[in-house]
Design goal:
Elements: H1 2-25, H2 31-61, H3 64-104, H4 110-166
Helix pairs in contact: 1-2, 1-3, 2-3, 3-4
């Protein structure tokens, strides 16, 4: 069961990376290219939502003792999805502002371009920070699982030694 979850996890990671890259390109494109990119990102966001639903279904099928780790992963993926949707919404707002400026003949000034560039960089940093936090959380969970396994092995060793002494 967890192999299906991990497969969905990998698909989700690849998809979110593609979405992030495309969201970053939206403000830089013009005209039909921009419209097509927005449509592609919307489709990919829908695919990501469907993957999250599949992952939730898989988590429900996992035995209760292992479910906690997967549930915490799901929370972080949902947060990441929310951030992606917010970033996409911001890029679409920037897109609509650019369309308005094109229609009105307003070229904008360099301070607006600098502001947009700073916002893009800030968003990238935030996304990277979220990914690092998710990686750290997974590492901590893995460490906890390893600790539990070592404790179980230690108890098993003691049992085997006691059984050997009895024989």
């Amino acid at each position: 069961m967890s192999s299906d979850f991990e497969s969905y996890e990998q698909d989700f990671a690849v998809l979110t990376a593609e979405i992030t890259g495309r969201i970053g390109k939206v403000p830089k494109l013009i005209g039909d290219d921009k419209k097509q990119m927005v449509a592609n990102v919307e489709k990919q966001l829908e695919e990501a939502r469907e993957l999250l639903e599949q992952m939730e279904l898989e988590v429900r099928e996992i035995p209760p003792q292992s479910r906690g780790m997967y549930s915490s992963r799901m929370r972080s993926y949902k947060q990441e999805m929310g951030k992606l949707e917010a970033d996409f919404k911001r890029s679409r707002i920037a897109y609509s502002d650019e369309v308005r400026n094109e229609l009105l003949g307003d070229d904008g000034n360099s301070s607006e371009n600098q502001r947009a560039h700073l916002l893009d960089n800030t968003e990238r940093l935030e996304r990277s920070s979220r990914r690092l936090e998710a990686g750290y959380q997974i590492a901590v969970e893995t460490e906890q699982i390893g600790q539990e396994m070592l404790e179980n092995l230690s108890h098993d060793r003691e049992k085997i030694q006691r059984a050997r002494e009895r024989v």
